[in-house]
Amino acid sequence: MLADLGAIVGAVIALGALLVSYRAHRHQVRRAEQLDGREREVEARERRAEERAKAAERQETLAQAAMVHLSVAPVASSLHPDWITPQVTVANLSSQPIRELLVCIAEIPVSDECGDVSSGQTRRISLPSTASRSTLDMLQLAVRIEFTDAAGLRWRKHSDGGLQEGQPAADGDWTWGARESPPVANAHPDIVDHLLPGPRYRRAGRAKLPVFLLVVCLVAAGTVLLLML
Q1: pTM higher than 0.70 for the full model?
Q2: CB neighbour list of residue 178: distance below 8 Å, 6 or more residues apart
Q3: Mean pLDDT by groups of 10 residues along the chain of 229 residues
């Protein structure tokens, strides 16, 4: 009888110890999940802040080049009444001058360097006259300009507004980077920082289940001992 009683008490104590250990383990797991979730959230915030800072710095670099406008329009030719003269218009709407302006069709310069264009000024360059409307349409797509901004950066601008930053090559020419879309002039987009959703934790009430089972087992063991006595 005493041996059976001792076995029952030992089993209850072992079960209680197991439940307490399980509860402590689950608490450690939840705590680790919380810490990992917070670390991921902090890393994501820092990464987004760094990306925004780089984007803002790049937009500032592109700012003046974005304010240089390029267009191609037909003008009546003085050579023949049915001919038209494509005219390239470069307008510097920035607050600083641009230097070493060059007009090109594809990769070929159409004239020598056109000099500087001061802030608020417009430069017009006439291309060879043509009788073909399709030629004008082709020129509108192929014309591009090159210029140096106030910071000393060399730019290539396409008729659709795309920009390429130039790097000097060993042969004295320029190597052009990837095309970039210029920032919208005078636009200040409101960038909202969307926080990552936090980790989903289990409710505290669920963690109390092992404790409840332990209490039930102890009460049952006490009842058995009283009946046997």
Answers
A1: no
A2: 164
A3: 65 74 82 84 85 83 92 80 84 95 87 84 85 73 93 94 92 89 52 34 44 53 53
